[in-house]
Amino acid sequence: LFRLLKKLTGRKQKLKRVNIKDTLDNQANQKNQSVSNNIDKNIELVKKIYQFPNNRDVKFREFRVGGTGLRIAIFFISSITDVRTVEDSAIKPLIQANDTDVKIKEIISTQNVTTMLDIKDVVTNINTGNAVLFLDNSSMAYAFECANFQGRAVEKADNEVLIKGSKEAFTEKVIVNLSLIRKRIKNESLMSESVTISKRSKNEVFMLYIRNVANDQLVGNIRKRLESLDVDAIQSLSLLEQYIEERSLSLFPSILYTERPDRAASFIEDGHIVLLMDNSPDALILPATFWSFFHTPEEHYLRFIFGNFVRLIRATAMFITIFISAIYIAVTSFHAEMIPPDLLLAIAGSREKVPFPVFFEILLMEAAFELIREAGLRVPNPMGPTIGIVGALILGQAAVEANIISPIVIIVVALSGLTIFTISDISLNFALRIIRFFFILAAGLFGIVGMTSLFAVGIFYLVSLKSFGVPYLAPMTPNYVSSGDTIFRRVLKNEKFRPGYLKPADLKKKSDGAVK
Amino acid sequence: MKQTEGKIGIREYVAIILLTVGTKLSDDTPTLLYSTAKNSAWISMLLIGILAIVPMLSLIKVVSVHRDKNLHELNLHLFGKVLGNILSLGMLLLGLSALILDSATYVNIVSTIYFTKTPSIAIYAIIMIVCGYGAKKGIEQIGSAAWITLFYLKTTLALALILSFTKGNLKFIFPLWGPGTKEIVKTAASKISILADFYYIGIIAPVVSTFKEFKKGTLIAFSVVVVEITIAIIIYVMLFDFTSIEVISYPFHEAILYISIGFLKNVESIFLPFWLIASFIRFAFYLYLVLVLFGAIFKIKEYEYLIPVMVVLIVFLGVAPKNVTYTIPYLREQLLTIISPIFFILPCLMWLIAKIRGDFKNEAKKVL
């Protein structure tokens, strides 16, 4: 109750201090009119809305139609419009038209021409890169598609690297991304609904799912959550993720983020929902389970044994990443008796001149490693190798020679730092990096008992998590009909069910043995 | 196969029982049997298993006609409001005492064998906070946690037992009848409450997704647990022989101190975390049972808020006894002796009353 009161009073104060002036409302009022019969009035209004000519890339041209001699005005934003199309398909044919009795729609030769009655729609069209025509003595405006936003071409995936399998990655243009997915799923049931999620910037999200596979309730639930957002601007999916995820303060992610169209497509085929957006070279997949963060597509592209071998290595790596530093602390400071005598003497010998307790030593090295990692990421390209050399040299060799840390600690920390890179998902990667420090702390305080306690709490927490109603560790527990793709995967022919926890409309995806 | 909210499937249910009852082989329960039945303790254990079938089956039979009632509601239904409440309250007290004594035993194990310098109240506090967290999450989460860890816990246990077996001497289990059949039967009769958990699971009977799974799960878990504990008891005798086993408080931990794996001579710290996780799940489950029962008797719906109080209570009552190594086993033995007849008679009585009231007939009619 106290916290609630505090929250309420805090909010009030904030509101008072901030000067609230809703300029968005003014903007909306201005364009809340219908297209006028008088062309001059329309031109005036649109010019006012766009602050023409101060707004340099807004273009306006007025001329007369060839045959009829009617006045016509054309508006578009040159930076997001294909100017060639505007010239060749609209202005030129209009000026050169001879017929006195032909309609505008018949003269313009773009793929589609729409008519509008409201200024609001006119503005939306101009903003999305289309050109708009006003005609004298007509209360209708015409828009034709000629948008051309700049972006890069389809490139190789940088962060989710595979040896075997498709190399394409999503780009910043949502149309390209959609095309990459449609290329993989040639099915008319593949829906790409769009939802506008922000008010000022009008960011649009595409919701992809297969209509007769995905659960309707789930689709409705996510659509509702997207529609209920009340924000001025959401630039990209990584920001959107934080608006729609369920537990903002949790260490564990609940939405999967991928830059690979093949991965997104395979999730769509399983009944998941994929979100795409302009400006985001990636896709959001939801709901997500713990296993989807743990997997990469490669394990399915590789043959059964190889794929599972990779999984085994990754599971081991995950274990090492979280526990190795903590185990070293716990064993050397609480359970020294379990180390074989020779090794114990070696450790003691190497630690002889080190003035710090093991706990501090490990913490120091782990922190140093995180520093190098972060610096290495932010460093400008030409200086990259320098940082690597300096980091490795100073923190490895010199620290040992200066008797600040023992050589064994370097092995331990290098192992824990290296193994984390087997987890390719960035969110889980971060979660594990942070969890590692918790375990180090627990081990420093209570040895193996402390670590085990933290682990038990972690398990209780993990099994209580849900992502859009799907238990985090499903289908392992609670049990559902599924292809059993958890730590290990089955032979591909036997993976014949879609995950039951999504409650898909069609559960079976292949027949027994995958043959007729 | 669809799972409804707040229910657990058969896997989770079996996993919970396997961990809660199965863990008993690693505390001082075997010692209680050895003290009177000597090297024939395993026969007593088997006998207990056979005897316990009677109350267990009666309970399942009673539950079969009242599928949506938990144990407290059954008590109210069968014994009337006053007597039912008194019975449930008695069960609550016995359950809470068992929880306190058992957890004190486990803390004693950790603090005497592994963490001799750490004050036991610190260890107690940590263990109970973790269990309180688990109990707060609820039965689904306890079940899921049990199922996820079950495989690893049982594998390491099997490894420890197999290693002990290779070190043991099979001749130590003879003479087969040990101190005589009379002693063996007496031990079995007075210690039958080792399996009293199978009475308390009636509290979560309506939480298991279907009655069929409850019945099947109970029977599977029951047979596995009895066999498991019996084998463990045989292996301890083979390892230590009967005269020394009587003075060993915690045979499982002595056994893992005794064995070695290849170049690793002291492996007890490898088994410790697995055993600890099993204990966490066990006490989280016990705590959950006690809280649900408490909430049902005193009509408290949001029992989660009781957890901090209960945890503090358990910790302080648990560390209260002086000279833990002697007091707790003594108290535990007393408690087991008290519960034994209750555990045997009560379910049978419930069945009898249900029979007299004609519940079974009504159910048969309903089915027709």
What is the helix tally of chain B?
A: 16
Q: Using the CA coordinates, give the radius of gyration of chain B.
A: 20 Å
**Ends apart, CA distance between termini of chain B:** 26 Å
Quaternary organisation: heterodimer
Parts with pLDDT < 50 across at least 5 consecutive residues of chain A: none
- Give the helices and strands of chain B as they follow along the chain: HHHHHHHHHHHHHHHH
Structural class of chain A comes to alpha+beta
Name the overall outline of chain A: elongated
Which descriptor suits the 3D outline of chain B?
A: globular
Please identify the structural class of chain B as seen in this structure: mainly alpha
Question: What is the helical fraction of chain B, as a range of percent?
Answer: over 70%
How would you characterize the overall build of this protein?
The complex is a heterodimer of chains A (516) and B (368). Chain A has 516 residues and is α+β, with helices and mostly antiparallel strands. Chain A contains 18 helices and twelve strands. Chain A has helices at residues 2-17, 23-30, 39-50, 83-96, 104-107, 119-127, 174-184, 216-227, 237-244, 261-269, 290-294, 298-301, 304-333, 341-351, 358-378, 384-401, 407-419, 426-464, and strands at residues 58-64, 71-77, 113-116, 131-135, 141-144, 190-196, 204-210, 256-258, 273-277, 283-286, 466-467, 470-471. In chain A, α7 (174-184) crosses α10 (261-269). The longest helix of chain A is centred in the last third of the chain and has 39 residues, at 426-464. With 368 residues, chain B is mainly α. Chain B is built from 16 helices and no strands. In chain B, α7 runs parallel beside α10. Chain B starts with 9 loop residues before the first helix and ends with a helix. The mean pLDDT of chain B is 88.
